[in-house]
Model the fold of this input.
Amino acid sequence: MIQTIRARSRDLAWGVSMACATLLVPAVSHAEPVDGTRIEAAAALGKEWLSHGLGYSEQRFSPLTQINDQNVKNLGLAWYLDLENNRGLEATPLLVDGVLYTTLSWSRAIAVNARTGKLKWAYDPLVHKGKAGEACCDAVNRGVAVWGNKVFVGTLDGRLVSLDRDTGKKVWEVQTTDPAKAYSITGAPRVVKGKVIIGNGGAEFGVRGYVSAYDADTGALAWRFYTVPGDPKKPYEHPELAEAAKTWKGDKYWEYGGGGTVWDSMAYDPETDLLYVGVGNGSPWNREVRSPGGGDNLFLSSILAIRPDTGRLAWHYQGTPGDSWDFTATQQITLADMEINGTLRKVLMQAPKNGFFYVLDRVSGELLSAEKIGKVTWAEKVDLKTGRPVEAEGARYENKPVVMWPGPFGAHNWHSMSYSPRTGYVYLPYQEVPGVYRNEGKDFRFGKKGFNTASGLSDFTAFPREAVSGALLAWDPVTQKEAWRVPHTHFWNGGVLSTAGNLVFQGTADGRMVAYTADTGKQRWSFPAQTGVVAAPMSYELDGKQYVAIMAGWGGVATLLGGDQALAPGVRNVSRLLVFALDGKAELPSPAAQPVKPARDPKPVKASATVLEKGKVLYHSYCMECHGVGGISGGLTPDLRHSSDDIRQAYGEIVLDGALERNGMPRFGGVLAVPDIEAIKAYVMQQEYLEAYPPPAEKK
Done:
């Protein structure tokens, strides 16, 4: 009988000798190393989960049927593993030869016996915690890749690390980014034809995006594709950039970095031998500042089809030309073959942030269809003749601020979607979150370690619950219509798994793991996870038994930036690996008591309106990404409104000198000065006062 497993502190003692090994370690031989043939075969059978989206097509559809819509009511917890982790969990575990490989926050990797839940090994790359100040969206990691006898993980500080999958010891390591710049890695690598593909993040902090391929055996760089042009005074790294440069204006974009980071989505088609990559937003967001005079700004917010042997571009499609709204195209790319208008087409599907669902021919890049999946006000439609959106008047906020849908959180973000060949539906976590944009224009000042958007982000000081919601959406990509929808009260709900058992699994922001019928969306099962769930489930089979596994742990950018309004009441981070099976009997312990807000009667702040405004702007440029809009924390980091007097006395040592860097609080010495800190403190204390004594609501 499988026993409930709880991780002890010694199980998760991240050995320094393991983490800091520098010599090459011979890989232990296995009966069947992982390669492309094995990945494709495993995706067809579903017993193992060898790549991020199960197979290269990233469908996240399990062909297993033992757990189905008739017996899922008997699903129970088979075992769980408590994890020493207090930030978001976003990884999809891989299952190889009876072992689950996954990642925690701060780019740590673990291997777990999939039958018993016993920890096999743990690896800590020892990322400097101050790096959190240069990562827009929590110190998260979305998982590993496996190839041959190695496990690959990208680290928050830009390294790509190869580990022996039997021991967890380091085989090789390469620095994929310039450590002097604000690059980060949170995405999962993929391995195609012996090359490890990895991108990066950091567009808000002024970096230039690219995707790289490294030899899986040696770590040697095979090729690199830059997604935006650099300094035109220097030779372009590859010919595609000369053409892209024609779509950029002004003389500052390369100084601002340009953006275009490839921080998540990839898929591969062995038939066409094309690697599909999603590209992110510009740096800064606002095109009026980034590229004054307009321009499409290739290859921002685009899908790229790249030849994996050479790194050269076969075709591209740009969903949001001249993006000014943080409408990344880094959301999941899914491949499928389906009949459209009587013809079998090889298609590529994506629901990026901008609120449209796109279906493209993945051989040629031809746009086949694009329709809104929810509330979209920035554009009326996508013109199928030109492939371009028909923008709404004023959407670019050049002359006056605008509130529009979706906002920078997107109608669909990184949370994984799933395609079921059985139903023909795509299942995706939809969310309805508005955005507020204002053109900073000539007032924009680029700030090192600052959140550089040039779109008036300091205006974003409140996050009303009534303005946001979420849903699990079943979408028919052929008819481009909604099949069914399950409303969620909260947004930032987890990724999705569909199965041949006519089921769809999803974790939710309010702390549940739920199963629905894939054809109708009827709820069949629910489990109290004791934490918000943002990661996607996966499924595997061992010894003839099917399991469903999920990394449960609340976190991510919405939790940090969105503040308490983005948090379901009573939900906090409780980090666990949960594994379910039919007739599972394990039980979770009773949840710990929630922290109590300190009792205090705040007084009005004695600071001028000028100082408070300065503090607001500085706070939302340097502090908001971790401590929330308006100083309101979402529970992962301290709520600065409720800081003790001792902490406030030590603001200088903490913020300027890095007294709490070991906890993930970066230092801002050389970027901010004492008067800046005092202004931020005054603003935060004012927010505390307004929490206790809110001004009367304005009459309409």
Summary: The longest strand covers residues 75-82.
